[in-house]
Amino acid sequence: MSTKPNQIETVELRTLKQEDYHDLKTAMISAYSGMGESYWREKSIDKLIEIFPEGQLCVEINGKVVATALSIIVDYAKLGETHTYVQAVGDYTFNTHTYKGDILYGIEVFVHPDYRGMRLARRLYDARKLLCENLNLKSIILGGRIPNYEKFSKELSPRQYIDKVKMKEIYDPTLTFQISNDFHVRKILKNYLPEDQQSKEFATLLEWNNIYYEHIDNYLKKSTVRIGLVQWQMRLFPTVSDLMESAEYFVDAVSDYSSDFVVFPEFFNAPLMADYNHLGEAKAIRELAKHTEYIRNRFCELAVSYNVNIIAGSMPLIEDDKLYNVSYLCRRDGSYDRSIKIHPTPSEINSWGMSGGNELKVFDTDAGRIGILICYDSEFPELARLQALEKMDILFIPFWTDTQNAYNRVRICSQARAIENECYVAITGSVGNLPKVNNMDLQYAQSAIFSPSDFAFPSNAIVAETTPNTENILIADVNLDLLKELHEFGSVKNLKDRRTDFYDLKLKSKPKQ
C-alpha cells in the first residue's frame, strides 16, 4: 500500500536522530523487500549516532524519514583492499571507525520505494561529499550491490557486466546511479554480502575522490592567486641601474596590492642595446647579455624585499658559447629557476644567431604550479600540454611582438592553451618604439589573463585584459580550486578524455644543452 503523500509540503536534509528509528526501519524494510525483512537494529543505529553523529544523514518529508545514508571513517590501510562488508563495520560493533582515518566509508543508503524518483539519494550523496571535503578525507569508498546481475550472470562475468553498465548497454539501479554521481569502480569484491543473491554475492568497490584533500603534512597553498602584469613602455635608459629602478617601481606598485606574481615582458631590457647599436645586431645582443646576471640577481632581491614572485620577462644568456633567450622565476623565498625559449623565431635566428633550449619545466611556488613559455613557444601546443600533464595551474607567457598580426598569433594560441589544458594563461608584452635599437623598433601589445571556458569562468574566457598599446599594469585574481573542479566535473574534460590508447605525447631524451 502506497504511503506517498498527495502533496509534498516540506523536504529536509538533516542528521539522523534516535527518535527517527521507527521511520528508518519501515523505509528500509520496504527498500530491501527483495532481500527478505532486512533492516538495521535499533542498538546499531544508536551506536552510529553516538560515535559519528555528523555521518548519519536522512531526508525527512512531511515529518517522516524516508531516506537514509550511514557512514563511518576508517583507516583504509588497516582495512585493506580486499575486505567484506562485515569486516568494514567491525562485525557491526563499528570499532573500525576512527576520526584519525582517511576514508569516509559508506555503509548504507536507501530510499523508501514510494519516494523514489525525487532524487533524494542524490541529495544524500551530495551531503556525503560535502562532509568528506569538510573533514579533509581522501575519498568516499563503499561497496555497491549490482542487483540486476542475476539476470545476466549466466552469460556475463561480473567485469563484463560492469563494462556494459558503464557503456549504458545495461541498466543497474545501483551501479548506474553510482557512476552518474562520479564514483568509479576500484575493484570487484567476492562474498562482500553473502546474503545478496541478486548480485550473486559480488559487489563493486566504488570510490569518489575528494579533489580538495590536503595531506596533513602539506604546507597550506593558496586557492586564490593574484597576478600583476606589467605592460612595459619601451624607452631609453642611460644605465642598467636606471632600467632596474623603473622595474622596481612596477614591482613596488604591484606588490602594494598583495599580488603573488608580477610579470614582465620578453626582452624588456632591450633599450640597453642602444649603446651597442653601432656594433650590429648580433654583437649588440651579446653585449646586452652581459647585464643578465646583474638583472637576475636584482630581481631576486626585489622578490624578497617586496614579497612577490617575479617572472623576470626574458633576456639574452650566453652559455657554452651559445646565445639563448631565458626567463627567470625569482621566488619571494630567495630561490630562482629558469625557462629557456625552445623555439627562436626565424628573425631571432637570422639576426642574432639565437639557439633553442632543451629544457621544459613546471615550477613549484607558494601560489601554485606554474609554467613559463616565451612568446613563440606559445604557438606550439605540445609544450603546454606536456606542462599541463605535470599539473600546471598557471602558464606565464612573456612576449614581444611588433605588429598586430604577430600579437594575434600569441594571443589566440595562448587562449587555446588555456582551454585545451584547463589552466590559466597570463600574457604580457611591451609597447612604444625604440628608434635607436635595430630589430626592436616597434612594439604592439595587449596584456591579458585567459581562463578555461566553462560555467565557472568568464563567458568569453578572458579574466581581464589591458588597454592596447598603453603602458599600465593589470591586476586580477584567479581561483585554482575552480581548476580542480573543472578537471573532475567540467562540461568537457580535455585532459581526462585524451585517447592515450590511440596516441601519446612525450619528451625525447634531452639533447645536450
What does this structure look like?
GO terms for molecular function: acyltransferase activity. Residues 11-172 form the N-acetyltransferase domain. Keywords: Acyltransferase, Transferase. Its EC number is 2.3.1.-. The structure is a single chain. With 513 residues, the chain is of the alpha+beta class. The protein contains 14 helices and 22 strands. The protein has helices at 21-31, 42-51, 76-79, 85-88, 120-134, 158-166, 175-180, 240-255, 281-288, 292-305, 346-352, 381-388, 404-421, 480-489; strands at 11-15, 57-61, 64-74, 103-111, 139-144, 184-190, 202-209, 224-233, 261-263, 309-311, 315-319, 322-330, 336-340, 363-365, 368-372, 394-398, 424-428, 430-433, 442-443, 448-450, 462-465, 472-479. Strands 8, 9, 10, 11, 12, 13, 18, 19 and 22 form a nine-stranded mixed β-sheet that branches. A hairpin with a 2-residue loop joins strand 11 (315-319) and strand 12. The longest helix has 18 residues, at 404-421. The termini are far apart.
